[in-house]
Amino acid sequence: MEVLRVSSKSSPNAVAGALAGVVREKGEVEVQVIGAGALNQAIKAIAIARGYVAPSGYDLVCVPAFKDIEVNGERRTAIRLIVGPR
Question: In this structure, what are the phi and psi dihedrals at residue 53, rounded to the nearest 5 degrees?
Fold first, then answer.
């Protein structure tokens, strides 16, 4: 599954376009975030992407989960959002 990493500085419109493209091509995508600001941008992007893919008959949903990852040698807990059609 393709992973899109979103930061607090990510543009929701750009992420939404990437999200919609991956969902159309592969069926689902994992969005990975660390921190409240990044989660905020990711949720906005998912809401925007729902509008992008709705005319094609997709109703996007997301399933949240935690994931332990390593960033610069440090263990962190990320939130992963699995996004795909209902």
Answer: -100, -10
